[in-house]
Write a structure and sequence with these properties.
8 strands, two-stranded antiparallel sheet, 33% strand
């Protein structure tokens, strides 16, 4: 690999990291627009900027994050299947931007959500189009073969995101 190629790769990785740390460039108020008729009344919309407030080095969470523990939430994002070439899955990662992957420098743990679907449910994997994920949120650092993840959701529903 040439020096110019390495520099270009480093610049691209830095850009992705900056977008992640900035909440993928979105306005937190605009981060989770879901069709109103699809949402149970006790569901809390959660944006990536709020998730980024988890200190993944110490496990310290803000009061607003702690209040979400064990609650029904909905988060927009992109799916990353944990099985190669999977068109549907019972478990996957939810990431804040298209192209985030565990094979390249992944987003930090506070920008990764591990989704385990309810028993008997599968989610369609379409990494190029955003989805809404609805389920019960757990805030804990999880180490896996796929990297460190800061959040887990027991997934109830996955559906196309509508802005």
């Amino acid at each position: 690999m040439t020096r110019a190629s390495r520099r270009l790769l480093s610049a691209a990785a830095a850009t992705v990291l900056m977008a992640t740390l900035a909440g993928a460039g979105g306005n937190p108020g605009d981060a989770a627009k879901f069709p109103v008729d699809m949402l149970p009344p006790d569901t809390t919309e959660v944006g990536w900027r709020l998730l980024a407030k988890l200190n993944y080095r110490t496990g310290e969470k803000t009061d607003s994050l702690a209040a979400l523990e064990g609650k029904l939430v909905k988060i927009p994002g992109f799916t990353v299947p944990l099985e190669d070439w999977a068109s549907s899955a019972t478990e996957f990662l939810l990431v804040p931007y298209v192209g985030a992957c565990i094979h390249t420098p992944p987003p930090p743990p506070n920008q990764l959500v591990y989704i385990q679907m309810d028993e008997g449910k599968r989610a369609k994997m379409d990494g190029w189009n955003p989805v809404g994920v609805e389920g019960v949120l757990t805030i804990e650092m999880t180490k896996s073969v796929y990297g460190d993840v800061g959040y887990t959701i027991t997934g109830h529903r996955v559906y196309p995101y509508e802005s």
